[in-house]
Here is the input.
Amino acid sequence: MFIRRLCAGLLSTLAIITPVVSADTQVKIIAFNDFHGNLFSAGNVADVPVGGVDVFAAYVDKLRAQNPYNVVVSAGDLIGASPLVSSLFHDEPTIEVMNRLRLDFNAVGNHEFDEGTEELLRMQHGGCHPEDVNSCLGEKVGTPVPFEGAQFGFLAANVLNQQTGDTLFPAYGTKAFGDHEIAFIGLTLEGTPSIVLAEGIRTLQFLDEADTINALIPEIRARGIEAIVVLIHEGGLRPSAAGAYNTCMDDITSSDLVMPIAEIVSQLDDAVDLVITGHSSVAYNCRIPNSVGRLIPVTHAQGAAAVVTDIDVLLDDVSGNIVDITLNNVLVEQNESVVPVEGITRLIHAYSDLAQPLADRVIGVMTAAVTRSNDPTNGQSDAGNMIADAQLAATRSPDTGGAQLALMNSGGVRANMGAELYPGHITYGAIYSMQPFGNSLVTMTYTAAQLKEVLEQQFPECLGRRQRTLLQVSAGFSYQFDESAPACNRIIEMSLNGTRLVEGGQLIDPEKTLRVTVNNFIADGGDGFTTLGVGTDRLAGVLDIDALEQYLVQYSGPDNAYDPNAASLGKPRVVSLP
Ligand SMILES: [Zn+2]
Here is the structure.
């Protein structure tokens, strides 16, 4: 009896103790993507001001305070295509801020390659820019000189040095929490070579994402790590409704597998527990079937520090595997309850003071804001059309190219313009934010048949195109398309200054030649426009930002303001037929 009572007592004691001694380990993963050097707020989401990296850092700190076991990760495009305050200084400010925010890992995105491989290695390892004096300015802003480089790890499992076969950066990083570790495999977009300047990545090879991930699994498990997270700079899911940043836009079904990230997830080894994505700049919180049909969480935090993904994972105490995941996309809202992190505020303002004289230079006046939001039917934006007009103006005369039309890639239009400083004044900072890549103009000759082929290549299933990618066109050039027509036969009408080049889908004079201006990025096949590479009589032109400045400087007086309506922005240059 005594023994029985003792046992019962022991059992009840054990029952109380059990959850404590074998407590599974809870880890907080704080994730974001596509920061793009947005040290200051990039604007509103659903009418709420969001971001500013000092505010963002306060959100990160708040999440971090909830659990001493935490890790902060970025899924690429941390730098590149940045506003002036970061890009003027070759994104050194962003790296320094991320060091102070204690970022752990950044999977390399396509934009990390914007200034080439050598410059990206400098971002990791530090040192001064070889030529530009706007580098290593730490003495003026209170950071170490020379530039300290990233104190966090760049990861790129699928980017190899062609000669050595080694990865440019480690394939994965690990972080320990108690007795267990989590592995973070970092991947960039396999398609990076088609969207960055070829010269900067000549020595590199970009491999298939899913194959690369699956091949790493045995090595990671051999190290006794079962908790495996993928940080991948690829997305591509359909945008959700405005403000629906914490939902999945649609149920993911097999018909959605054409979308890059769903297709990749569908091939993944079941050992991968969580996929944190980037690149598409639409926030989502999805579950997508992997190779065995198990639904795994797939997240995306919008970009520009507007949203942060708050993820809690539970590690099994015995195996260390992830046994439960909860996640939330949180809006990085500016409000009174959020106190920006002071040291970061001070640092970004120090850089902003250095950039200010250049940024504030007024170059013109405009009557209304010009936005980069694309008309969903014809893919045109006022900003894209204005840039195309500026590029045509800069290359129209015979000695600058003799151009008759200009075509601009939509992805190269990075910001809206107008209403900064005081209403209507266009500053250098504004045009720089709109065109931050430092691309130069190229004017080439195409036959009408070749030009039609360029336009056909904008639509899916034609010449390797997967997703519709519409170019912005200059005034005077117009076309109509029928998306329901067969691939490569969708251009129904095409005209230049009232002269028909295509009618009823037929070329009127296929050999008629035209001078066309584009930027060097798409001229060399960027954004998948391989058809632009066939142009002849190539003449190099000015920088894209200089063309835009020249164009807008003529509107420098109040009575001569740039009028988007008078410039025929908003009048359809491209028409989608029903
Ligand atoms: Zn990207």
